[in-house]
């Protein structure tokens, strides 16, 4: 793989954090499936559009169109977005709350790892991003379905991130 | 209004230090003789006169005594006067003595992936004989731990425990933090040396579960002196890239362990050969986070197997 200005320890830690979040996120999806029988995100696409559940891009991180600084920015912005989405799901249910809390912490910690790496490289934006408007849920069902969609979007975001990071280790 | 009253220079002192006390008898104490000799008694020791006794301007009498070396951690000092054929205790003060806390030592921490908390423990140091509070203090930092970023909520251990757990919500994983222990009592404060660590670098891993594989002869021809094994990583730590080592030993007196290193953390089929057929072997496996820094797990429970 091409040599990179990123220290190997940053890449290894980031990969471990991605796997940690993926494991936790899978737990969340399994719990939402077991508890509410919402097991197929593809069945919620229509609802996702009406709720406005966003997807975070990672276009600058693919090996074909790699742009380091923009890739880091996209990683951070994506984690920041999903962190906000997970917060919007607070109160989803007592069964899921512990997993959701831990997931939020893991996502926030990974965002800090990326932000500090940007600072070290001197490419950090001048200010932390501000949260874009998040979906509002008007029913318990919407909140649960929103949770499934957010978690599944996060899972594919992490998959892309893992491939990109793994490519450079 | 009581007849006598004791005042002490310092109620809690360092063991072996001197302490000065005075007992004042008020003039309104009519039942006593005009100028009674004021006496002192430490714990159940002899009654002894003070170093000096004098009149005060308001007509009261004051006796002063200095105990050169207090060597009781807790003692009662009484002020008495002769009365008929005996004595009367007019007042009593409690003396406490001990030591300022020594610096706590051997601070170490482990990240518990089951409770998601950072568990730290330390040596409190010698007994102080005084109520002493220990607090685990910490703050977030950057790579070399020289600068303090956000401070973290003090971790107060349960009574008389030398361990404290910092909850996940206070931890910033994959970043360094600084930790130390502060000990405090009325005689002083001390601090342990500081520890600089990333909680994920001190994860307490559990070993994989080592299992024997039953390979049917049809699939793989039987080879004498071989064993088939499999293992899976400990679930809470499966997101952590690990390296493992296997050790085995025939259950014969005086034999040593043989070590197989650089093994993956998950293995569906592992063939171990070169073993003697007769004896039963004990096998164990352990793992460590790698290539990122980490700590060895303990060895897995011994698996007893007889080679083919």
Automatic annotation (TrEMBL), chain A:
GO terms for molecular function: cytokine activity; granulocyte colony-stimulating factor receptor binding; growth factor activity. Granulocyte/macrophage colony-stimulating factors are cytokines that act in hematopoiesis by controlling the production, differentiation, and function of 2 related white cell populations of the blood, the granulocytes and the monocytes-macrophages. This CSF induces granulocytes. One of its GO terms (biological process) is positive regulation of myeloid cell differentiation. Monomer. One of its GO terms (cellular component) is extracellular space. It comes from Phodopus roborovskii. The gene is Csf3. It is found in: Secreted. This is Granulocyte colony-stimulating factor. Keywords: Cytokine, Disulfide bond, Glycoprotein, Growth factor, Secreted, Signal. Disulfide bonds join 33-39, 61-71. Belongs to the IL-6 superfamily.
